Amino acid sequence: MSVREPGGRRSGWTGTMLPAWPRVLVVIAHPDDESFGLGAVIDRLVQAGADAHIVCYTHGGASTLNQTQADLHRARESELRGAAAELGVAGVTLLDYPDGGLADIPAAELAGHVTGSAARVRASGLLVFDDTGVTGHADHRAATGAAVLAGRRAGLPVLAWTLPVAVAARLLAETGQGFAGQPPTRIDMCVRVSRERQRRAALLHASQISPAAVLWRRLRLLGDREYLRWLVRPPRAVTASRPAPGPRSDPALWLLPGHLCPCEEMSWSVATLSSSAWAGSGAPALTGPGSRRCPASTPGSHSAALLKAAR
User: Fold this and answer.
1) What is the Cα–Cα distance from 118 to 112, expressed in whole angstroms?
2) Is the CB of residue 128 less than 8 Å from the CB of residue 134?
3) Quick one: what percent of the chain has pLDDT higher than 70?
4) pLDDT in the model for residue 63
5) Phi and psi, residue 117, nearest 5°
6) Could you give the C-alpha distances from 65 to 58, 99, 131, 182, in angstroms and in order?
7) Bigger pLDDT: 305 or 66?
8) Which of 124, 309, 135 is nearest to 232 (CA)?
9) Beta-carbon neighbour count of residue 90 at 10 Å?
10) pLDDT at residue 165 is higher than 80
């Protein structure tokens, strides 16, 4: 895939690399958001040398889950700090806003905490949930909205973790939960991640995790990839672009940043048909882990092969 900076100069950014931030501030609504949602991305940033700090708005005391029958207000703080340490996070600021009530707090008030923390740790950028909330939780949207407001005021880029629309649709269909994703045109990065530390951190949220948790299904669907988009762009951010037609790119089919055709043996690919073919497809084509090589012998048959595999 060819990605170019404005003006046509080829960029070193391929859509598969996270920004090289020396310090990142992670803004979340609840304990476990840093692990269940952002864990693999935080881990990759830390492993690349970033100092990561977390601002969490609530103690998560209104959760309907309590696997350990603990006092959630106290237990979830302990779980957050343990999971953050597992991910290599340098510091945690835990606020005490009402769980489930962030949308009722003035955005400027919430943003003030982000602005202050970002200045204190000299953050290079902010990492958040997508503005859809990903799971549909209003607190997620409020936390992200505050971070976006703070980022714009402070001149800091804001990078959001998101789901491909097809993965979100699969989770919505399977669980009934309000997962929301983004189409390829609104995704800027697809990065390869390790799940090892994320899984260990998630398990430290003992009050919230269980073998039946939707988290495990989502991680299976995503494999070793995470998807991100800019909510506030850095000055020289490069967005993903459609690849030009060629031997690795069907004009009727294009893939998310960092992905080629499944015949390139990607462990997970989510593909979206072009607008001219969308009406007849009914849904994005999805191929899963361990899928066989695409049987297409010519670029023009890739879309048909993917649709057949999805059925």
Assistant:
1) 10
2) no
3) 69
4) 72
5) -70, -40
6) 15, 13, 24, 28
7) 66
8) 124
9) 15
10) yes
Token pair, residue 87, equals 């991910």
**Can you tell me the distance from the alpha carbon of 172 to that of 163, in angstroms, rounded to the nearest whole number?**
12
Cα 158 from Cα 50, distance rounded (Å): 15
Q: Residue 27's beta-bridge partner residues? A: 55
Q: Model-level pTM? A: 0.73
Amino acid at 96: D
CB 99 within 8 A of CB 62: yes
> DSSP states of 103-147 as a string?
GGS-HHHHHHHHHHHHHHHT-SEEEEE-TT-TTT-HHHHHHHHHH
Write down the H helix ranges in the chain: 39-47, 72-86, 107-121, 138-154, 165-175, 196-203, 214-222, 275-281, 302-310
- Tokens describing residue 291: 């899928």
Complete domains list, the chain, with CATH: 23-232 (3.40.50.10320), 253-310 (no CATH)
CA angle 198/180/289 to nearest 5° reads: 55
137: its two tokens: 């939780």
CB 140 within 8 A of CB 36: no
Q: Cα separation of 192 and 223, whole Å?
A: 9
Residue 27 sits at the vertex; the CA angle it makes with 98 and 269, to the nearest 5 degrees, is: 120
Q: Which residues pair with 4 in a beta bridge?
A: 10
CA 174 to chain centre: 20
23, two tokens? 């310090």
User: Nearest CA to 115 among 161, 63, 55?
Assistant: 55
